[in-house]
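Supplementary material to the annual report.
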Amino acid sequence: MLRSHTCGELNKSNADETVTLCGWTDRIRDLGGANFIDLRDRYGITQIVFAPEAGEALLKSAQKLRSEDVIKVIGTVQPRPLGQENPKLPTGEIEIRVTELEVLSKSEVPPFTPNQHELPNEDLRLKHRYIDLRRRDMMNTLMLRSKIIKSMRDYFDTHNFIDVETPILGRSTPEGARDYLVPSRVHNGSFYALPQSPQIYKQIMMIAGYDRYIQVARCFRDEDLRADRQPEFTQLDVEMSFIETEDILSLIDGLMAELAKEILDLDISLPLPRMTYDEAMKRFGHDAPDLRFGMEIVDVTELAKSCDFKVFSEPANSGKFVRGVNAPGAAANYSRRKIDELTEFVKGNFGAKGIVWFKVDEEGILTAPSAKNFSAEQLVQIGEAMDAKPGDLLLFLCDDWNVTCRGLYGLRKRFGAELKLYDPNAMHFSWIVEFPMFDRDEEGDRWNAMHHPFTAPRQEDLATLESDPSGARAQAYDLVINGFEAGGGTIRIHDGEVQSKVFSLLGMTKETARDRFGFLLDALSYGAPPHGGIALGIDRVVMLFAKLSNIRDCIAFPKTQKATDMMTEAPGDVDEAQLAELGITIVKPETEEV
RNA sequence: GGCGCUGUAGCUCAAUUGGUUAGAGUACUGGACUGUCGAUCCAGUGGUUGCGGGUUCGAGUCCCGUCAGCGUCGCCA
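Predicted assembly:
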């Protein structure tokens, strides 16, 4: 070891010890006759002092040090002079009187420093990630991530789970997200696919009799990025045999309670609240609602049917919906111009036609340009339905179910943040259960699996599965934290007959099913236990526990929105020879005529 | 693919309705300073205003295109 101690551990009890420290020079305070340097490593900061007593030469060489030089110093631990302690540092009551200095590595002038107050632009941070990762915040986050993953592993180990690694090079499956493909050299023209999740492997582990499996698994999906989505991400993948929905939920309940306690010292009461998918869509317009605040959606379609205001009555009487939200106390701060902005927001993002709004005045009366279209009684009824109080702003969308859901979800989310309707430190865990088995294909009248084609329907929906597919509910569940889908899973079909029914509803013939999932169907036919599982998005869990607003900040080397790595500049070109070996020719896209 | 925000010194930002030589803090360079801790003080270097076009007597500012980062919709079983 080059060092005897780290920069975070020395205190008064080490007084007079001779120590050797290594680290990066953080802040340098050169007073001419004496030089104070904050020496930094992962563990903390220790002040080292170059005093004239140690010799002119030493002081001179210390004065040549600059930001981010890596040095080794030998010196004695001394209590700081009275009144010179730094209460901000755990090591603040001591300092190191340096007797020897060795520069291990000189640094160029860095484009930014880990201690600066204003964070540089994100592209610069990503390009020089090795400097960004030196920042205390990043170190804390990555250490937190490590701790969370260790807690997860410990929890499942205690519950008798086996950690099994599954292949990264797999086979492309046609359902779901786009695959990342890897060309085969040995089989020119054939490709491996990187796993979107270890879904099929973990089911096969169940069939193989490993009844409790976990894996911290890297997953890959070639889809567009978001603040909470990266093309490669990490899942805590779990699967169990001989269990029902209840077993998975209570297992994960226990994990969440343990994490909340260990990481945040937070007591959460179990079982975590549960809400059906239908209820979530009705009350919040989304299957991952942020339940840290209210502002629920209210359906006033019935009221709207009988009023003279065509914007309300026409959609209401033609099978569409009039639904609204109450933005509490927002009337004063939302001018016509700001409401116009909200209108553009729902038009542009969710395909709504516009917003009908009312402000509630001091007497509790609804006022708006469109109010003249309503009788006084109708306005009162609307106000009551919305639980309107003086100063509130009521916003309505009149459209089909999906547009009202999406638009009001968007408005609710926006108001939640703008009106600070929740404590940003609050943590709300809940389950959304009973997802539909199928949803309608956008183009044709085909059914799509809402989760994946191996998801089991609820027992009580088995009989009507084929007669009423839209009413069939799945044994599927999502864990939602603060409005983020933190995980999701299902109980799987282990019965060949049910599986065939589902395939045929999805428009798959026996032959297609066999072609696509033959190996799994084979496996299922050789003695498959009832099984199910869940996958938690570790990046998102860490983001939420660390109170961050994007998952890039809890990933050491994340990718940009265009899925590039700014540090390594991946993806990059490869040699012609490499391509030739793989039998690949690049077809340049035709340049369009101007 | 659509929409939006951002892009000015190494970094973080400013620059009035489009108007003189594009400023400040910090970093950097040099100097002063023996108790600092976001050290202080003095001086200095540092600019293709992302890139390309256009409008104009004149563009950091307006328009068009383009690139990059971020947010979001589509997409993500």
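The radius of gyration of chain A is 30 Å.
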